[in-house]
């Protein structure tokens, strides 16, 4: 099997390993009216009605697993997802919302979820399924901010390469349902089952924390935008609202955890990387999980990754990384951070070692393309130039998807209905340099 095929096979197997249904079945049980999540036992007989709520890219498969486990115990279900899905149960209300930019559907979804939570009584219990994508899928801007202003601000943050934590800080202070606001006012107790799409599984950041509390302030939101040279570019109404909030003119987000709601992280990037290591070592490939996550600009990151690969002087080895790089987009091309990172790496490979490189999004959708990422090796650049496909042109026009479409090196899985961040795998085979021998 070629080295490209090896990494491709491992990646496909990894997507199966982290399916939401599988993660829930591994960590949730139900018997004799007791619902067990990890090590916590919840006596459902103490409640009159059980309600299933949720939002995110993984909400449908998560709900399928919960509905299969609890069956007739669930009184109602309201789910918000990113895909046109007909696989939900008949008694389930499903709202297909929008991502990565919020829309009128996001407002419809947020209004429905908030109304449902506010309608619950003290003897009700809810299970909320939270996964990546929720920040855009569920949104209700603070008055007087318009949807168009919120969309413009979100778009500028995405294109400006803001880290997810900074983006969520801003979103929380422009929203009526983030930073713990969605849970405010409900009489019912509940739990949140989480598939984490942030490094470190920070509950303040996942989905912009609709049912958790917030540690950031209006001033933090203003500072984050200024740090990325975006404050003066966002709509005037948003600037004014944030400035007023930083001066105490608006109510802050909740600053303490609700006693009624508990969170459980069932899947994370750490979980993903450990599964990847297991699969690679099952193929007899020595593997190291990097201590530091992928983050920062793709160009800087590409150089760091290539320097690591080119300097490695050992036997066959694979390094794996998790996280999310950022791209400051300039141009109208197609692609995403993973394809742009792969193309940046391709430009830097010098051939000292035999290197195979994979970068992919676990949700199967990288940026504005239909690919999850790309898979290249030491020979990719030479092969592209031999076919008169100039990588520099596609890198400068931010059109990595078109480049890899031409070279046949895209990774295409379709939407995986999950999101545990991105994964990078670098498989290195040391090659002999001129003048070396086995000695």
Question: Your description of this structure?
Answer:
The chain is an alpha/beta fold and 439 residues long. 37% of the residues lie in helices and 20% in strands. It has helices spanning 3-17, 20-27, 59-70, 104-119, 134-137, 147-159, 164-174, 218-227, 236-246, 269-282, 298-311, 337-348, 380-386, 391-396, 400-407, and strands spanning 28-31, 34-37, 40-43, 49-55, 74-81, 92-96, 124-130, 189-195, 261-267, 287-289, 317-323, 353-361, 373-377, 410-411, 422-430. The protein has a 6-stranded parallel sheet with strand order 6-5-4-7-8-9, with helices on both faces. The protein has a 6-stranded mixed sheet with strand order 10-11-15-12-13-14, with helices on both faces. The protein has a 3-stranded antiparallel sheet with strand order 1-2-3. Residues 432-439 have low confidence and may be disordered.
Keywords:
globular, 15 helices, 2 domains, alpha/beta, Rossmann fold, disordered C terminus, glycerate kinase, domain 1, 439 residues
């Amino acid at each position: 099997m070629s080295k490209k095929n090896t990494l491709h096979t491992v990646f496909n197997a990894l997507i199966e390993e982290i399916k939401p249904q599988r993660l829930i079945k591994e960590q949730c049980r139900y018997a004799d009216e007791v619902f067990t999540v990890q090590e916590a036992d919840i006596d459902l007989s103490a409640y009159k009605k059980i309600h299933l709520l949720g939002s995110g890219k993984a909400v449908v498969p998560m709900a399928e697993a919960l509905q299969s486990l609890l069956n007739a115990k669930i009184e109602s279900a309201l789910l918000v997802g990113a895909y046109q899905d007909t696989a939900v149960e008949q008694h389930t209300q499903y709202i297909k919302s929008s991502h990565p930019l919020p829309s009128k559907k996001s407002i419809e979804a947020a209004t429905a979820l908030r109304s449902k939570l506010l309608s619950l009584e003290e003897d009700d219990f809810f299970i909320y399924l939270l996964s990546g994508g929720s920040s855009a899928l569920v949104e209700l801007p603070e008055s007087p901010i318009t949807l168009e202003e919120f969309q413009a601000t979100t778009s500028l943050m995405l294109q400006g390469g803001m880290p997810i934590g900074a983006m969520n800080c801003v979103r929380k202070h422009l929203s009526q349902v983030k930073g713990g606001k969605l849970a405010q006012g409900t009489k019912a107790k509940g739990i949140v089952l989480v598939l984490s799409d942030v490094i470190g599984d920070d509950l303040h950041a996942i989905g912009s924390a609709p049912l958790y509390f917030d540690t950031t302030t209006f001033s933090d939101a203003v500072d984050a935008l200024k740090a990325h040279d975006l404050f003066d570019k966002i709509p005037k109404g948003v600037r004014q609202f944030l400035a007023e909030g930083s001066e105490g003119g608006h109510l802050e987000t909740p600053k303490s955890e609700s006693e009624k709601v508990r969170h459980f992280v069932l899947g994370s990037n750490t979980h993903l990387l450990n599964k990847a290591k297991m699969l690679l070592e099952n193929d007899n490939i020595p593997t190291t999980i990097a201590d530091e996550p992928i983050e920062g600009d793709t160009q800087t990151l590409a150089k760091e990754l290539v320097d690591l690969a080119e300097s490695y002087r050992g036997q066959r080895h694979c390094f794996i990384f998790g996280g999310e790089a950022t791209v400051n987009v300039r141009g109208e091309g197609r692609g995403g951070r993973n394809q742009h990172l792969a193309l940046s790496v391709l430009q830097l490979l010098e051939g000292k070692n035999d290197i195979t490189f994979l970068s992919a999004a676990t949700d199967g959708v990288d940026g504005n393309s239909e690919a999850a990422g790309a898979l290249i090796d030491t020979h990719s650049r030479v092969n592209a130039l031999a076919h008169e496909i100039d990588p520099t042109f596609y890198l400068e026009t931010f059109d990595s998807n078109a480049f890899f479409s031409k070279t046949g090196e895209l990774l295409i899985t379709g939407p995986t209905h999950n999101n545990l961040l991105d994964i990078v795998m670098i498989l290195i085979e040391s090659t002999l340099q001129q003048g070396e021998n086995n000695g």
